[in-house]
Amino acid sequence: MPPQVLLVEDDDKIAAPLVRTLEREGYDVRRVPEGQRALDTLATSQVDLLLLDLGLPDMDGLDVCRRAREDGYTGGIIILTARDGELDRVVGLDVGADDYLAKPFGLAELLARTRALLRRSAAAPTPTVAPAAPTAAAAAIDSSRLRVDVQARRVWVREQELAVTTKEFDVLALLAAIRGAVVSREQLINDVWDENWFGSTKMLDAAVGRLRHKLEEAAAPARITTVRGIGFRLEDVPDA
Q: Does residue 28 contact residue 22 with C-beta atoms inside 8 Å?
């Protein structure tokens, strides 16, 4: 089954060539012009990648991105917009976008970033039958009570599963693999995004910020700390 791409763009002159280009690359593309229709599609259909314009007629694209993440969408999100200010880029990343392209952009660059995100998403299939939450005995084996299941690509805090995006999971899995040790920013960028990544490193900071928030909300007995000038580490804290 080809990757399912949802393009949210109200300008026909922009949407038409994008759809043609993506379909030539073998993607199954669906296009909607409004934010609410995009949210409805995400709720009822499989979508591997969301290409999202911010200037929509019914609602701001940033709100679409935020609501999509709140509703549990974990696929890739690339924001496409004429807003090229740093504040808009940072806000977009903070509300859950994986990437950001300012218009006008080259189709080759869009396709490269699309392939990079879909490569990561392909490694995270959604299981048809959800595995049971870890038992008390299993939890006791993990003294931190934070369980990162690399094979199933799922994260548990005690019996609670955390909803994380593909990028968030990859960052957390790298930190959890050598818990207590520092993972450099360069390694995280190279392993989670791409060794040839040419975008802003703010996406790493945004992903770490969202992970911190989710761990805090779940009262996880682990936290991500910043080692200034080097990177990040995942360290255990007393379980309250």
A: no
Please report the beta strands in 97-228, taking only residues with DSSP state E, as ranges in sequence order. 99-102, 146-149, 154-157, 160-162, 183-184, 222-227
Three-state DSSP state, 149:
strand
For 139, phi then psi, to 5°, come to: -65, -35
* Percent of residues, the chain, with pLDDT higher than 70: 82
CB 161 within 8 Å of CB 146: no
Q: Tell whether the model's pLDDT for residue 96 goes beyond 80.
A: yes
For the stretch 213-219, contacts whose Cβ atoms lie closer than 8 Å and that sit 24 or more positions apart, written own/partner, are 214/162, 214/163, 214/164, 214/168, 215/146, 215/157, 215/162, 218/157, 218/160, 218/162, 219/157
pLDDT tens figures, 128-184: 333 344 433 333 324 447 888 887 888 888 888 888 888 888 899 989 888 888 999
CATH of 136-236, one of 1.10.340.30, 1.10.357.10, 3.10.450.50, 1.10.10.10: 1.10.10.10
Domain 4-122 falls in which CATH fold? Rossmann fold (3.40.50)
> Which secondary structure element, helix H or strand E, spans residue 65, and what is its range?
helix 61-70
Question: What is the separation, in whole angstroms, between the first and last Cα of the chain?
Answer: 46
Q: For residues 223 and 237, is the Cβ–Cβ distance under 8 A?
A: yes
Decide the pairing of beta strands 222-227 and 183-184. unpaired
